[in-house]
């Protein structure tokens, strides 16, 4: 499925695509662990974060703030860090400090001149509101996990987006997570631009995105926006 010639709507995953959440997550954990004189390896921590948060999200729906608390507790257990569960709120509390990637706001402002923009995010409305203070854009559509009571890669976000924009024609999602967004878009099917910031390599058997770029500047170039 090629990129449509007449795109009207671009939607973005938020964390990992627009927001540097890996740095935010690591800094939050590092600061909390330092209270107990514990040093954490960034790569190990982030691998655990992605693995455990997916496990938590695959269960019955609960607010993303609770997903983060449960993830923090389980990570501490696996690292033999005696973190009291009552302290696990440090992670959802840190979301307000997670910053956009350097190019995010400038590129969104460029894209907003040509397209309608939306957000599809695995988060709750309160935490997303804190993040949006860092992004001075009025989005035309926002779909959160709280609104659909489901977490990607389940289809609810994409189904609800298509319902609100009256179909899939002219819609292209932009996402950094192959697991959460690229694969379900290919299943829908919806054309998808993969912002592969982590430089992941797909296996030959894995479904390819419609287009692959490194960051939002490359998204703008791909779509001819300058």
Give structural notes.
The structure is a single chain. The protein is of the alpha/beta class and 226 residues long. It has helices at 21-34, 42-57, 64-78, 90-94, 104-112, 125-132, 145-148, 156-164, 178-187, 216-222; strands at 9-12, 116-121, 141-144, 171-175, 193-195, 211-213. Strands 3-2-1-4-5-6 form a six-stranded parallel beta sheet, sandwiched between helices. Strand 2, helix 6 (125-132) and strand 3 (141-144) form a beta-alpha-beta unit. Helix 1 crosses helix 2 and helix 2 crosses helix 3 (64-78). The longest helix has 16 residues, at 42-57. It starts with 8 loop residues before the first strand and ends with a helix. The model has no long low-confidence stretch (mean pLDDT 96).
List the strand order in the largest sheet.
3-2-1-4-5-6
Provide the structure class: alpha/beta
**Total number of strands:** 6
What series of H and E elements makes up the topology? Answer: EHHHHHEHEHHEHEEH
Q: How many helices in DSSP terms?
A: 10
* Amino- and carboxy-terminal Cα gap: 25 Å
Percentage of residues in strands: 5-15%
The outline comes out as globular
What is the alpha-carbon Rg in Å?
Answer: 18 Å
What is the arithmetic mean of pLDDT?
Answer: 96
Give start-end ranges of low-pLDDT stretches. none
Helix share bin = 40-55%
Characteristic key phrases:
226 residues, alpha/beta, six-stranded parallel beta sheet, 11% strand, globular
Give a brief description:
The protein has helices spanning 21-34, 42-57, 64-78, 90-94, 104-112, 125-132, 145-148, 156-164, 178-187, 216-222, and strands at residues 9-12, 116-121, 141-144, 171-175, 193-195, 211-213. The protein has 226 residues and is α/β, with parallel strands linked by helices.
């Amino acid at each position: 499925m090629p990129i449509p010639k007449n795109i009207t709507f671009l939607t973005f995953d938020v964390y990992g695509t627009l927001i540097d959440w890996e740095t935010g997550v690591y800094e939050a954990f590092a600061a909390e662990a330092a209270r107990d004189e514990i040093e954490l390896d960034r790569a190990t921590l982030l691998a655990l974060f992605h693995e455990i948060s997916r496990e938590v999200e695959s269960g019955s729906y609960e607010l993303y703030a609770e997903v983060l608390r449960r993830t923090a507790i389980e990570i501490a257990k696996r690292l033999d860090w005696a973190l009291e569960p009552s302290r696990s709120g440090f992670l959802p509390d840190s979301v307000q400090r997670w910053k956009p990637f350097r190019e995010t706001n400038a590129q969104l402002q460029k894209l907003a001149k040509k397209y309608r923009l939306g957000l599809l995010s695995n988060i709750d409305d309160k935490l997303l509101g804190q993040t949006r203070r860092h992004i001075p854009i009025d989005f035309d559509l926002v779909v959160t996990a709280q609104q659909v009571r489901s977490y990607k890669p389940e289809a609810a976000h994409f189904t609800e987006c298509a319902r609100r924009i009256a179909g899939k024609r002219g819609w292209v999602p932009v996402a950094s997570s192959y697991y959460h967004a690229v694969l379900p878009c290919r299943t829908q099917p919806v054309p998808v631009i993969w912002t592969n910031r982590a430089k992941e390599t797909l296996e030959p058997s894995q479904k390819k995105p419609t287009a692959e770029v490194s960051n939002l500047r490359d998204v703008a170039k791909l779509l001819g926006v300058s």
